[in-house]
């Protein structure tokens, strides 16, 4: 076998495993395709090729999506372990390389914050500070700020105090109810009780329960799709699957484009002591690259509204 043929085969297997893992985690070809920035058909084809090679079905069709078969679930767990080892090795390599370059930084944050708030602004950082090279580690896993595989800084959701870190407040954590303007019933909701029969999109923060408690409807029953990440909840809302309750900084870009709109004539926000904070292992040293990035992040926040 030629070297080029071997490389193509390795790349093909890699793509199939990526498609398989994303489908198993998200429960549908469509959601996996959205995450991987490919077509739904491409993901389905990768999975079909895997099934043909292995001689077995990997997924069971459900009324609302796909679920790995028992043997495939064990396989996907092992695939994730292998991917985690590769990802960890990459982080160690990047961290080792950055130790000799004070202008090369790794910033960890959630996928939702990275794509919805940070990514649209990064070009301005490059324009204003071309010497700084920043790698965004977008994951819902909390990365260490000290020790092996540590990152230089992070943007985290929470409330102070943050133990063993230096934290700077960045954005408020107020959540608002948003939906697609095409969602059936939009425009007719005036009070919280009006949406009890509307699909309500949830993520791991379980904000709807706290929202109904805050507005005098404790124990209210509601239903709708649930996702493991705020980013997916926002995608679902944009596709008209229901109303999502999302931190306002993450929803603002879609509100500006018109992909989303506030669900109520009155705001009905969910207030919280939590927010987004920039955290570092140690107090920031003036004139350092980290100090430059933190100052830039704060400059991207409008002092009047908390958003920009």
UniProtKB/TrEMBL annotation:
Residues 15-69 form the HTH lysR-type domain. PROSITE patterns: HTH_LYSR (PS50931). Keywords: DNA-binding, Transcription, Transcription regulation. It holds the Pfam family HTH_1. InterPro entries: LysR-type_TF_proteobact-type, LysR_HTH_N, LysR_subst-bd, WH-like_DNA-bd_sf, WH_DNA-bd_sf. One of its GO terms (molecular function) is sequence-specific DNA binding. GO terms for biological process: DNA-templated transcription. It comes from the Bacteria. Belongs to the LysR transcriptional regulatory family. This is LysR family transcriptional regulator. It comes from Pseudomonas putida. The lineage of its organism: Bacteria, Pseudomonadati, Pseudomonadota, Gammaproteobacteria, Pseudomonadales.
């Amino acid at each position: 076998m030629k070297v080029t043929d071997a490389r193509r085969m390795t790349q093909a297997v890699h793509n199939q495993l990526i498609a398989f893992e994303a489908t198993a985690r998200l429960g549908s070809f469509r959601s996996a395709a959205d995450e991987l920035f490919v077509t739904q058909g491409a993901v389905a084809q990768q999975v079909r090729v895997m099934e043909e090679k292995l001689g077995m079905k990997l997924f069971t069709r459900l009324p609302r999506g796909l679920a790995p078969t028992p043997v495939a679930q064990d396989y996907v767990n092992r695939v994730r372990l292998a991917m985690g080892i590769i990802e960890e090795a990459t982080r160690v390599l990047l961290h080792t390389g950055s130790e000799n370059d004070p202008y090369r930084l790794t910033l960890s944050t959630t996928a939702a914050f990275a794509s919805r708030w940070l990514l649209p602004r990064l070009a301005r950082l490059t324009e204003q500070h071309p010497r700084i090279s920043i790698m965004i580690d977008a994951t819902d896993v909390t990365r260490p700020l000290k020790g092996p595989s540590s990152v230089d800084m992070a943007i985290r959701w929470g409330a102070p105090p943050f133990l063993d870190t230096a934290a700077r407040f960045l954005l408020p954590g107020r959540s608002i109810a948003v939906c697609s303007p095409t969602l059936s019933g939009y425009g007719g909701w005036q009070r919280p009780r009006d949406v009890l029969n509307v699909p309500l999109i949830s993520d791991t923060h379980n904000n709807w329960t706290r929202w109904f408690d805050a507005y005098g409807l404790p124990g209210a029953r509601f239903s709708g799709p649930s996702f493991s990440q705020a980013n997916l909840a926002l995608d679902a809302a944009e596709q008209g699957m229901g109303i999502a309750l999302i931190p306002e900084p993450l929803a603002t870009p879609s509100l500006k484009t018109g992909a989303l709109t506030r669900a109520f004539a009155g705001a009905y926000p969910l207030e919280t002591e939590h927010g987004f904070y920039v955290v570092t292992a140690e107090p920031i040293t003036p004139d350092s690259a980290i100090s430059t990035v933190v100052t830039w992040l704060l400059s991207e926040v409008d002092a009047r509204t908390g958003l920009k």
